[in-house]
């Protein structure tokens, strides 16, 4: 697979206009300032939190923090910033305290991007694109790139050092985003590496955002990971997590391809992002400091 093939498989995206970004609020937090921002994207208005570390002596590495799914459509950026939801998901805030500039937008259909009172609109967002020969995944990936555009335009950010982290839905996005955007140099996926071939099981299935017509006929996540050779990946998988199935297969298949930029770490437990795994993730993202 090449990037041209990837773009062809995912379908066209609209040409974005100017971001026209606005800062709506700044809040002083423990070790960082949290800004609530918005900017224009082709499908509407993006809504994000940007966490800027205090007392920076030099521009900081940027980490895109993608929220989980969990069927909680009223939650997105607020959970990864520790304002609501599961404290174990507050990695955007934790990374800001460690000196990373983090950006955490709502994905399409979540929190401020949900137009149906926190109902599941993912399948509508998917089908309304499929009938036009487009995919929801392409638009989601384009929005990730636009968020990176915004974050790296800030004077506090180092545009050469860009990372990504996510759990569950965010863990899946952590595999795809570096294949779409070559600027992402380090990416951590927790609890989201299940290949398409294992998703046909009835207790797994397919998330709307990752339904791409024909993709599984010729490709799988190993192809996406292999494509993003500019990025160092850490895939954290749990033994009793269905969304982590196939992790060791991925490791074996990529080793056969000599794709040494992907590391797989399997731990006991279920679909969680516990402190030990977050610490492992943060240490891996520290590679950006030496980039």
Radius of gyration, in angstroms, nearest whole number: 18 Å
Number of strands: 9
Overall helicity: 25-40%
Largest β sheet strand count, sense and barrel closure: 9 strands, mixed
Return the string of H and E elements.
Answer: HEEEEHHEHHEHEHHHEHEH
Spans of 5+ residues with little confidence (pLDDT < 50)? none
Number of helices: 11
Mean pLDDT: 97
Q: What's the CATH architecture?
A: 3-Layer(aba) Sandwich
CATH hierarchy, class:
Alpha Beta
Strand line-up in the sheet with most strands: 1-2-3-5-4-6-7-8-9
| Strand-residue proportion | 15-25%
Features:
alpha/beta; Rossmann fold; 11 helices; 23% strand; AB_hydrolase_fold; nine-stranded mixed β-sheet; single chain
Characterization of this structure:
With 291 residues, this protein is α/β, with parallel strands linked by helices. The chain is globular. The protein is built from 11 helices and 9 strands. Helices cover 32% and strands 23% of the residues. The chain has a single domain (3-290), classed as Alpha/Beta hydrolase fold, catalytic domain (Rossmann fold). The two termini are 27 Å apart. Belongs to the AB hydrolase superfamily. This is Dienelactone hydrolase domain-containing protein.
Topology at a glance:
Elements: H1 3-10, E1 22-28, E2 32-41, E3 44-53, E4 60-66, H2 77-80, H3 91-97, E5 101-105, H4 122-130, H5 136-152, E6 157-167, H6 169-180, E7 186-190, H7 196-199, H8 215-218, H9 221-227, E8 232-238, H10 247-256, E9 262-267, H11 275-285
């Amino acid at each position: 697979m090449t990037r041209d093939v990837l773009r062809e498989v995912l379908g066209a995206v609209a040409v974005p206009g100017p971001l026209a970004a606005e800062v709506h609020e700044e809040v002083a937090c423990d070790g960082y300032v949290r800004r609530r921002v918005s900017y224009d994207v082709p499908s509407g208005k993006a809504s994000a939190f940007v966490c800027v570390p205090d007392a920076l002596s030099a521009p900081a590495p940027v980490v895109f923090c993608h929220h989980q799914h969990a069927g909680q459509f009223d939650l997105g950026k607020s959970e990864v910033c520790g304002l609501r939801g599961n404290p174990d998901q507050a990695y955007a805030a934790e990374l800001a305290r460690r000196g990373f500039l983090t950006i955490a937008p709502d994905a399409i259909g979540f929190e401020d991007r949900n137009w149906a009172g926190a109902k599941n609109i993912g399948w509508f967002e998917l089908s309304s694109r499929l009938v036009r020969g487009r995919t929801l995944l392409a638009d989601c990936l384009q929005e990730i790139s636009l968020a990176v555009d915004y974050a790296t335009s800030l004077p506090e950010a180092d545009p050469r050092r860009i990372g990504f982290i996510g759990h569950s839905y965010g863990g899946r996005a952590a595999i795809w985003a570096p294949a779409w955007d070559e600027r992402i140099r380090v990416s951590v996926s927790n609890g989201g590496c299940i290949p398409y071939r294992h998703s046909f099981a009835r207790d797994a299935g397919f998330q709307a955002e990752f339904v791409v017509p024909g993709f599984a006929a010729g490709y799988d996540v190993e192809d996406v990971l292999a494509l993003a050779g500019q990025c160092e990946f850490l895939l954290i998988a749990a033994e009793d997590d269905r969304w982590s199935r196939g992790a060791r297969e991925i490791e074996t298949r990529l080793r056969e391809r000599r794709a040494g930029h992907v590391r797989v770490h399997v731990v006991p437990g279920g679909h969680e992002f516990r402190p030990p795994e977050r610490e492992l993730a943060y240490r891996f993202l520290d590679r950006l400091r030496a980039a």
